[in-house]
Amino acid sequence: MYSKCWQIIKDDSKRTFEICGQESNTNFFTNGIHGMQKAGMNVSCVTPPVTGKSSSKEVIKIIGYAKEDGLYERLLNEYREITRRYFGQWEV
Predict the structure, then answer these.
(1) Crossing angle for the helix pair 71-88 and 27-38, nearest 10 degrees?
(2) pTM to 2 decimals?
(3) Residue-wise pLDDT tens for the chain (92 aa)?
(4) Helix (H/G/I), strand (E/B), else coil: 53
(5) Do 42 and 11 form a contact (C-beta atoms < 8 A)?
């Protein structure tokens, strides 16, 4: 069994991706992506294992996608704005 996995987020609308780091438990990351998907965002994630061939983030490539630095932060801000609007509907 692998001890760590890469956390990679993909913006499927703009065909970009960012490698967010390595983690042994990816539940928080994948649950966040699932929340973004439920909010209507066109995002996905992959969590491949860290192996000898993929021990450096520079060698990781996703076919058809370009790297975008700051993608995760941009998508988090977009998600915060969506949820803020959603909760604003409940004000009395």
Answers:
(1) 50
(2) 0.86
(3) 568 999 999 999 999 999 999 999 999 999 999 999 999 999 999 999 988 777 788 889 999 999 999 999 999 999 999 988 877 666 55
(4) coil
(5) yes
